[in-house]
Design goal:
This protein is an all-alpha fold and 79 residues long. 71% of the residues lie in helices and 0% in strands.
């Protein structure tokens, strides 16, 4: 297979960082509009929310792959 889970988790973390940067760019655009006395573009704010949701999902996937799952207490235990 060649790729281990830790490597995938690292790559996903890097993608999450890129997504966070993109979301911050959208927030800056909205803040600039407000500073200039305009309303923030609804498409920009909607895009920021969508990017943030994607970042959270990627963060979650990275965490799930990076941390070995622990067995549930009592799951493997017999009577």
């Amino acid at each position: 297979m060649g790729t281990d889970l830790a490597d995938l988790a690292e790559r996903l973390s890097a993608i999450a960082e890129e997504l966070a940067d993109l979301a911050l760019d959208r927030l800056r655009e909205a803040a600039d509009a407000v500073r200039n006395g305009d309303e923030p573009d609804a498409r920009t704010t909607a895009e920021e929310k969508r990017i943030t949701r994607a970042r959270r999902a990627v963060d979650k996937a990275a965490l799930l792959l990076a941390v070995p799952s622990s067995p549930r207490a009592g799951f493997d235990e017999g009577p």
